[in-house]
Amino acid sequence: MHLGHSYKQHPPTGAFDAIVIGSGIGGLVSAAVLSRFGKKRVLVLERHYRLGGFTHTFTRPGYEWDVGVHYIGQVGERGALRALFDKLSDGRIKWAPLPDVYDRVELGSRGYDFVSGTGRFIETMGKAFPNERDAIAKYVDLVKKTSRHSSTFFMSRSLPSIVSAVTSPFITRGFAELASRTTRDVLIELTKNEELVAVLTGQYGDYGLPPARSSFAMHAALVSHYLGGAFYPVGGASVFAEGIAPLIEAGGGRLAVSAEVSSIILEHGIAVGVRLADGSEQRAPLVISDAGVANTFGRLVPEASRPASWTKALTTVPPSSSYLCLYLGFKATDAELGLTGTNLWLYPDEKHDENVARFEADPEAPFPMVYLSFPSAKDPDFQRRFPGRATVDVITMAKWEWFSKWQGTRWHKRGEDYDAFKQRFTERLLEVVFKRLPQLRGRVDVAELSTPLTAEHFASHPRGELYGIDHTPARYELPLRAKTPIPGLMLTGADLATCGVAGG
User: Which residues are within 8 A (CB) of 233 and not within 5 positions of it... i.e. 6 or more apart?
Assistant: First the structure.
């Protein structure tokens, strides 16, 4: 199902109350909220030919894959996000629970299950580490406490600047203290068991930083998000756009694809619209950017008008990790292949930080982490749409510098050396898959690898980053807020809170 209209073939006309740059989950939800609560005509501009940002899907004959939504928490019957999605999609988005063991972390040959429910999580981890039961209970309590404090922290960023400046030191103190520390520093105070630390941080790929680099605030938000279990959208990730778009259009709004914004138009220091790559302009009294902070203030806002305090602060936090994703398709069902919806996190051993550093220094080094997701097994509607087929996503980290020499080349026309470089990664990732799931060897029908250049091309992420700006302790000291110093320009999306659908 293709949503939106080609900007070139059907250019939007008339007056708009707001313009949203980008149709990621932050852009879609912002546009939908505006449409439902006052700003009736909202224009959403998406540079890709499909809506959804990292919530979109792509297809090949007989197959479909998600590109960023692998699971989501807090959407059960009483989940914090459930009511929001129900409201903004009029109940069109449905959810299927993942298996009770939603994540399995494997350190070499040793495996550990992440199970649904806080009490059961503590019990299961306690059985695996019987001498660490007190540490595990204290860890979970600290995770939940930090996550609760985070809501106050992000709320403070929506307050007027003067009010926030006065109240923030008091209402965000508990959060700020832990946000300023790394995940490893916090955990090593709870336990000296390196194996346990490695297991408890075994989902670090969900935010792209190993324990000694990531802020404990991000780690706590992620872990807390899934303690109640994990879910997958019925019909695949594209249902986010399919469910939310009708609300935007019902208010007279438009969703335009293949609509690349080249700059934000400022007049007398006020944002009044946008200029597109074809030279055309669209105007509105409110511009909301879901293009990411780096894009917004590094490319879209004219250099002379970029707020000095923000641009200087942003230099202290680098872009997040780039990544490789191998999309696999099989002419067999998940049941026939013995695949379930449990995500697999595969690590060579417990030394996460050392393994990442070694791989960053040498792309031929062993992968520090390989994540396996099974979208066809998670989606109860997949067999109806693609009978007799199954899909697997295989993800690992990457560095932009390995691919930057091909920047500026055309998609699918980057040259033989690029294709050979990709093929080497493809073969190595396949060997990891076959070692863990030997029943898949010889049965791959489709194998297609995306690189950081793919994210740069389709999502306009300058360095192919997956998670916006990095989730280091320094990130939480940035002065980022929805309301920017430029009148008429606001921000939305994951850079304001945390990565992922919930943060966006």
Answer: 69, 72, 93, 94, 95, 96, 239, 240, 379
Would you give the distance in Å from CA 187 to the centre of its chain? 24
**Placement of tokens 């999605």 in the chain:** 85
Q: Are 380 and 419 in contact (CB under 8 A)?
A: no
Residue 376: which pLDDT band, with cuts at 50, 70 and 90? very high
> Which one-letter DSSP state was computed for residue 226?
H
Tokens of 464: 């192919």
Per-residue pLDDT band at 172 (split at 50, 70, 90): low
Long-range contacts of 157-160 (CB under 8 A, 24+ apart): 157/480, 157/481, 157/482, 157/496, 158/481, 158/482
pLDDT digits (tens, 9 = 90+) for 83-94: 999 999 999 999
- DSSP state for residue 99 in the 8-state scheme: P
DSSP string across 379-433? -TTHHHHSTT-EEEEEEEEE-GGGTGGGTTSBTTBS-HHHHHHHHHHHHHHHHHH
How distant, in Å, are the alpha carbons of 64, 435, 456 from that of 390?
9, 19, 28
Burial of 385 (0-12, 13-18, 19+ CB in 10 A): middle
Residue 203 per-residue DSSP state: T
pLDDT digits 0-9 by tens, 28-85: 999 999 998 877 899 999 999 999 998 989 999 999 999 999 999 999 988 889 999 9
Mean pLDDT of the chain: 93
DSSP string, 275-291: EETTS-EEE-S-EEE-S
For residues 236 and 249, what is the distance between their CA atoms, to the nearest angstrom? 22
Cα distance between residue 53 and residue 26, in whole Å:
9
Write out pLDDT tens, residues 202-236.
Answer: 999 999 999 999 999 999 999 999 999 999 999 99
